[in-house]
Amino acid sequence: MSTSPDRAGGIEAAWRRERPDLDPSSIAVITRIWHLAKVFADERRRLLVTLDIDPALLDLLGTLRRSGEPYTLTTRELAEHTLVTAAAISQRLNRAERHGWVMREPGDGRRVLVHLTAAGRELVDRVASRVFDRENELLAALTPEQRRDLAGHLERLVHAVAGPGPMPPVG
Predict the structure, then answer these.
(1) Average pLDDT over residues 160-170
(2) Distance CA 78, CA 80 (A)
(3) Cα dist. 25→15, 17, 30 in Å?
């Protein structure tokens, strides 16, 4: 058994040997994507633990921060941007509010506005800086041109597989 971190080639070769009637070439892409997704997720999780924030709250705060001044969205917009259910947004908001990172206020009608506080903005800016630094380290094996090319290929694949519409909520 191979001890290489990239086992996809060996897996593909074994399938070709055992079932020459099949085309296992997808393994070269799919298995590597799965492996990298796990590595990237594990790295992000480890970093966020050291920064004392969980991925769900970072997603919430990052969404508000990326919305631009005045860093305010409705709960519905937050759910749409973060691809989670309204119930999941409510849970995240409760936790973020307890930390003083967001404030809720009634909007017109049934809308609720969520504001990123100064403390929330400071936190998300500090965390984003550390996350981007680490992720750029992980991608250092690729030149800027290779990164752009890979990003373009992955974007085309996402559109081809997932379609043009929004992805369904995940939580």
Answers:
(1) 69
(2) 5
(3) 10, 13, 9
pLDDT of residue 6: 84
Which residue pairs, CB below 8 angstroms and at least 24 apart, start in 164-170?
Answer: 166/80, 166/83, 167/83, 168/83, 169/79, 169/83, 169/84, 169/85, 169/88, 170/83, 170/84
Residue-wise pLDDT for 35-72, tens only, equals 999 999 999 999 999 999 999 999 999 999 999 999 99
Handedness of CA 169, 48, 152, 34 (dihedral sign): negative
Q: From residue 35, how far is each of 27, 54, 121, 128 by CA, in Å? A: 11, 22, 33, 24
Cβ count near 81 (within 10 Å): 18
Rounded distance, CA 149 to CA 34, Å?
A: 19
What is the architecture, at CATH level 2, of domain 53-171?
Orthogonal Bundle (1.10)
- Give the residue extent of every domain in the chain: 1-50, 53-171
Residue 150: alpha-carbon gap to chain centroid: 17
The predicted pLDDT at position 171 comes to: 43
